[in-house]
Amino acid sequence: MALAPAAGLAQDAGKQAPSAAEIDWRPRSQLPAEVQAGLPVFCDGGYLPSGTAGGAMPVLPAGETEAPLEASALSARYELDAELYLQGDVRLRQGSFQASGSEARYDTRSGSLNLQGPLVSRGEGFLLTGKDARYSTESGQLDINTATFLLHESEMRGEASSLSRIGENQVLITDGLLTTCGPGQNDWAIVASDIELDQAEGFGTARHVRLEVLDAPVFYWPYISFPIDDRRKTGFLYPQFGSSNAGGGAFLALPYYLNLAPHYDATLTPQYIQGRGLFTELEGRYLSRFGESVLQLGYIDDDSYYKDENPGADGQRWALDLSTRAAFGGGWSGYGDFSVVSDEDYLSDLNRSLELDQATHLQRRGGVRYSDQNQYFDAYLNGYQTIAERIADVNKPYNLLPEVLYAGTTEVGAFEAGIESQYSWFYRDNENLTGLNRANGQRVRAIPELALPMRALWGFSRPSVSLDYTRYDLEDYTLGNSSFDRTVPVFEWDNGLYFDRRSSLFDIPYNQTLEPRLYYAWADAKADQNDIPDFDAGLKSFRFDELFQRDRFIGGDRVGDANQLTVALTSRFNDLLTGAERARVSIGQVRYFDDREVSLFGQGASDRSNSPLAGELVLNPVDNLEIRSSGLWDYDTQRTEEGRSQLIFHSEDYRYLATLGHTYSRPDDIEQTDVGAVLPVTNRVSAIGRWVWDSKLDRTAGTLAGLEYNNCCWSVQVVHQNYLTEDEELDARLLFRIELKGLGGSGGASDSIADAIYGYDERERRRFGTQRR
């Protein structure tokens, strides 16, 4: 043991000592600028470790079990081979253990040290204070009476009648209180008879536990475990609750998380739904060295409301969703998705956590994929469950059993040779179908291409020739020979120039580009292809990006005839200080030299000589504001055919969010306006809202309105949501979320808001570090 002379004045033993949290707490104005910048506006301050009381003391590396005890004091008395007595500004250190107090007695024979307070002990990531303490230099155990403590990483503080630090990372607390609220702010607290904190494992356990809100008990648990950092831990999560008029009333869910192993876990969520009964959901996750798999199940044995609405139904309803992703290395990967539900209404009635959207078809798909810089391969099986009973057999999609895709390119001197190929086997139940709709079968498609790419700083030119070949081998085909093929020669020539100039605006230098582009396409396709079944064909939506595509059809059952020239112009404005693209405007039109005669049972043929004008506008005048607009304007009719506009704004800290959108489509008879916002009312209260108006229906298509309260240790969200169902009725639900910092949250309001308002998920991430199991 080394004894060093001390400096400073003795502490006043009679003075009320500050708690651990008070020692390291700093008001916002006293925090360093970089810490203030990362502190949410609703926090009044934060913790800043300041070294041991009375001055800083160097810390020896942790884990030195044989480290000597070092001490300093204003006075010392030593009895040979018996006791060392220290008095006045006592400071002790052994390895990573540090403590200070008013006096200490060290028994040299047993290695036991008694320390009188006010006591302060600081370690890596924690601070302890107390009235007095006993410390063993042999085992490192520290027992403190009338203690307070602070864990810096989780910002968790507390107090206890007694506290024992029995190891480097373990603390036992008797008659303790825990909270993440700031000093003197017990908005919520966990009070328990016995608490154990394990920093090595990242969780705590407690017995005879009360949750207190403003010092009033609101809930009791005989035993709980809870996280003290962001690691996963088996135990109950916070209850979820809300209400809905979609065939049920209030619901209450009690999720239980099972941390089964480092690479797999599960969450079981039993829940009671008023009017329906007990409903249970299960999510399992498995992580292998190849990738992640997720299994989700939902089950209700006796849905009372469903039986009343559907006489004869047994009320047993269920759903399953399985997804898997794997990376095998060397460019190879695998994937799989499988979904199934018991009935058409399951998703709208019951689904709360399964990652399934309301849809008419649920996809089942699985396969393997390979890709590198020059080639791509994909082989998979694909099927569907059609859950909407109103869909006729003729409109149900085909299964692919299987589909194989391959594409590759290679350089041949100055030329570039490539191929796109596809093999598909289409099948669906055709028992109730007739004519062309009854056909099933196989299709092989290959498109070899030879191009001469020419590139320079000022532009590019790429002429190419290709052959679009398709072969069919069909079953139950009644229009002639069931095996036939189709060959379409194709010529394309894509050209672009690049001009730029430098200037400045408001003393900001920028670069403006002017990018004219000419694209010619010719395809000699047979006009009448309606003797070919429609396995996967469709007509592409026409917009600016489609100006440079030679085929107006998707899928492989129609190849469009073409003799057309696209003329387009794009201009960009790039900020030379930041490199950001501040504006982009594009406009273009297609000139047709021949009538388009190929159709998909009447769709896609046209005799007009010009397409509508297609345009895009993107503005980013500042980093936090984005304006996007695209549309089609028909010169012949002097009318807008389609228009989509969106304004997105967020402040730098995402406290302010605003979106404004408008969608119009004359062919689809759609016109909707969408307004969403999150606006602070005070530093701690924000208003949340979204409104969707359908001009064609002359009615509201959806709303979301709520309030959010935040302070530095808890938050609450209350949201009322209306949404339009398939039968054009507005259903409503009330959603809640309460979050106690450090203990997680309950309810599903945040997910619904994030789906409705762009940027809200980023706002949640920045709000404060959400502790999750």
Structure write-up:
With about 775 residues, the protein is mainly β. It has a domain at about 1-60 and about 75-230: Lipopolysaccharide (LPS) transport protein A like domain (lipopolysaccharide transport protein A fold). The strands form four sheets. The protein has a 26-stranded antiparallel beta barrel. It starts with a strand and ends in a 6-residue tail after the last helix. About 30% of the residues are buried.
Pick out its properties.
single chain, about 775 residues, mainly beta, lipopolysaccharide transport protein A fold, 26-stranded antiparallel barrel, 13-stranded mixed beta sheet, about 5% helix, disordered N terminus, disordered C terminus
Quick recap:
The model is unreliable at about 1-15, about 50-65, about 355 and about 770-773 (pLDDT under 50). The longest helix has 8 residues, at about 750-755.
Integer average pLDDT: 86
Poorly predicted runs of 5 or more residues? 1-14, 51-65, 353-357, 769-773
Oligomeric status of the shown chains?
Answer: single chain
- Based on secondary structure, the structural category is mainly beta
Cα distance spanning the termini: 44 Å
Shape: elongated
Strand segment tally: 48
Strand count, sense and closure of the main sheet?
26 strands, antiparallel, barrel
List the helices and strands and how they pair.
Elements: E1 2-5, H1 20-24, E2 25-27, H2 33-37, E3 45-47, E4 70-73, E5 75-79, E6 83-94, E7 97-107, E8 112-123, E9 126-136, E10 142-151, E11 156-165, E12 170-179, E13 188-198, E14 203-213, E15 216-227, E16 235-236, E17 240-244, E18 250-253, E19 256-261, E20 264-273, E21 277-287, E22 292-300, H3 304-309, E23 317-329, E24 332-341, H4 346-349, E25 361-371, E26 375-386, E27 399-412, E28 415-427, E29 440-451, E30 454-456, E31 459-475, E32 483-497, E33 499-505, E34 508-523, E35 538-539, E36 553-554, E37 562-575, E38 581-592, E39 613-622, E40 625-634, E41 639-650, E42 657-665, E43 670-680, E44 685-694, E45 699-710, E46 714-724, E47 730-740, E48 744-746, H5 749-756, H6 760-767
Parallel strand pairs: 1-4
Antiparallel strand pairs: 2-3, 4-6, 5-6, 6-7, 7-8, 8-9, 9-10, 10-11, 11-12, 12-13, 13-14, 14-15, 16-19, 17-18, 17-47, 18-20, 19-20, 20-21, 21-22, 22-23, 23-24, 24-25, 25-26, 26-27, 27-28, 28-29, 29-31, 30-31, 31-32, 32-34, 33-34, 34-37, 35-36, 37-38, 38-39, 39-40, 40-41, 41-42, 42-43, 43-44, ...
